[in-house]
Write a structure and sequence with these properties.
The protein is about 95% helix and about 0% strand. The protein has about 180 residues and is mainly alpha-helical. The protein has one domain. The longest helix is centred in the N-terminal third of the chain and has 92 residues.
């Protein structure tokens, strides 16, 4: 009789040990899943915040480039006006009337060529500003994708954890 009691006591102790191990395993799986999902979601959010910051910096750069182009074209136009004023002064000094005939045509052609240079400076700056603006839109889009990816990965981790728990439970119950 004592042998049967000892055997039953050992079996009960073994069952308690197996049950405790299953509980520890379950807690470990749940903790691992929760932490993994949390870090993946946080990583996605951090990537989005970084992309948004970079986009804001790029937008500032875009506005600065557009303003620089305006200032540069203004400087070019000022230089152009000074050049034309010198040209008119030289015509006057030589006794040439610059308001009629060939001298007027030369000054008009020169003014058109100089203005094209100023417009080219504006166009180049506008194109660069537009490129930077588009880059900021792409950076924000990438940030949104990173956040969605983090959330999706977190959900995948949770689903893997549920699957792992179900499998562990099945092994514990002898079902699987």
């Amino acid at each position: 009789m004592a042998y049967i009691g000892t055997a039953l006591g050992a079996s009960a102790a073994s069952a308690v040990a197996v049950g405790s191990m299953a509980t520890v395993s379950t807690v470990a799986i749940v903790g691992s899943v929760a932490y993994g999902a949390y870090t993946q979601q946080k990583a996605g959010k951090a990537a989005q915040e970084l992309s948004n910051f970079n986009a804001a910096q790029t937008e500032l750069e875009s506005r600065a480039r557009a303003q620089d182009a305006q200032l540069q074209s203004l400087a070019v136009r000022t230089q152009n006006e000074q050049l034309q004023a010198r040209q008119r002064a030289l015509y006057a000094k030589a006794g040439v009337v610059g308001t009629t005939g060939t001298p007027l045509l030369v000054l008009a052609d020169q003014a058109a060529i100089l203005e094209m240079g100023a417009l080219d400076v504006e166009r180049t700056g506008s194109l660069e500003a537009a490129r930077l603006k588009q880059q900021s839109v792409i950076q924000r889009w990438q940030g949104n994708i990173a956040r969605q990816t983090g959330n999706t990965n977190a959900m995948g981790t949770i689903l893997q954890g549920v699957s792992s728990l179900a499998s562990s439970y099945g092994h514990y119950r002898g079902i699987a």
